[in-house]
User: Fold this.
Amino acid sequence: MIYAKNYECLSKDDLEQLQIERLQATLNRVYEKVSFYKNAFDKNKVNIEKIKSIKDIKELPFTTKDDLRKSYPYDMFAVPLRDIIRIHSSSGTSGKPIAVGYTRNDLKMWSHLVARVLTACGITSHDFVQIAFNYSLITAGFGFHYAAEEIGASVIPSSIEDAKKQIMILKDYKTTALLSTPSYALHIAHVLKELKINPEELSLKIGLFGAEPWSENLRAQIESQLNIKAYDNYGISELIGPGVSFECSERNGLHINEDHFIVEVIDPKSLKSLPVGETGELVFTTITKEGLPLIRFRTGDISSLIEEKCSCGRTLIKMKRISGRTDDMIILDGLNIFPSQIEEILLQIEGVEPHYLIILDREEGKDFMQIQMEVPDSIPYFDELKKLEDFKNRIKDHIYNKLGINVKVTLVEPRTIARSSGNKINRIIDKRKI
Ligand code: DLL
Assistant:
C-alpha cells in the first residue's frame, strides 16, 4: 500500500519540477527571514535567482549542527515565535541539544510523512500500534503517535515502560505492530524468552524500528525472536524527526520523501558532491518546512543512494541503511571502522548474544579495541575455562579475518551489559578521549 501515490510515484521530471519550485520558495524565505542564511548567502556570493535547477544546489553553503547550536534556541526559526506551536529537541547524544520548532503546517506535514512510513510497512487502520518510544522532547514518540492516529490505527502510547509491562500490553491489547528502537525490541524479545512466552502467542506481525544503527543480522534475530517482519526507518529531529526515509515491502534501501527533502551525498573531507552509488555523508535540504527550514544540512550519517526501479511502485530514490556516523567512525591502526560492522561480524558467530560494548583505549601510546561480551548461556560461567578461551579466540579470529584488526575480547557474566531502556543505546566507550 502507498499512502500518497500522487507524490510517492511521481515521474522524475515532475518530481524535479516540484522540488525546484519548493526550493526557490524556501530560499527566498530563509534569505528574508533568517539572518544566518542572509549572512551565509551574502558571504558566499550566492544569488538565489540563479538557482534554477536541482544541480545548482551545490552553489549553496552547508548548514551544520554547530551552526544550529550557535543559534540555540530560536535564532534560526523562519517564522515569528507565535506561529510555533510545538518545540522538540534533538536527542543530544553528541553535545548540546538543538531546539526544533514546528508550525501548524509543519505538524500536519510531519504526520503525513510518517503516515507514509507506517503504510509502507503494511500498517493500516486495522492495526494496534504500540509506540515504545519515549514521549518527550525527542521526536520519536509524538512523531509516530499523530501519524498512527492519522491513518486510523488504534494507538497504544506505551512509551518506554519496563519490558515486562510492554509484554503485558503486547499480549493483552493484542498489539499487531511494535514501534521502538531495534535494541529495545531485542530487549523485549529477550524478556519474552525469560518469561517463557512463545512469540506465537502474541498477535504481533510488524516491527518498525529506527533512531539508531542496526545490522541485517540484528534484523534477523529480532524477526525470529518476535516472529515478525521488521522494517527500518530513518529521520533526524533537526530535519523533522522520523519521516525522512523508510523501507517498503522490498526492504532493500529506504525511500526518501524527496518531495519534502532534497538529498545529496558528499565526501565529508572535500565536501564535494558524490555520484549516486558512492558512499559518503548524507546532506538534506528541507523544501516545505516553515518553522526551521534547513539548507544543505550535514547529517554526519554515512550512506549511499540507490537509483533503481522499486517493485513497490514508488519512484522516490532510496538510501542504503546507515552504516555509521562521520563522528563515531572508529579509526584504529589507520583503518576506518564503523560499530555496525563489528556488530554484523559478531552476530555471525554461533553463541554470541547481541549485547556487547566496544571499548577503545590506549596502552603505551598504542590504541586498541576491546570487545566486552557476555558469556553465552551454553557455557556455564568459570566452569569450562578451555571452552571460554576457545570462544574468545573464535571472536578474535573472526574479527581479524574480516577487518584485519587485532582486538582484545573480555567476557563478563550473562546479563551484565546494560540493556536498552527504550532510548538510544550507546555501545562505544572511547577512553582515548578522556
Ligand atoms: O532518531 C528520529 C527518529 C526517531 C528516526 C524514530 C526514526 C525513528 P534524532 O534523535 O535527532 O532523531 O537522531 C538522529 O539518529 O542522525 C542517525 O545518526 C540516527 N538514526 C536515526 N534513524 C536511524 C536509522 C531520531 N534508521 C540520528 N538507522 C541520525 C541508523 C539512525 N541510524
Remarks:
- The pocket of DLL is lined by residues 90-91, 138-140, 210-213, 232-237, 241-242, 299, 301, 322, 325 (CB under 6 Å).
- The CA atoms of residues 120 and 248 lie 5 Å apart.
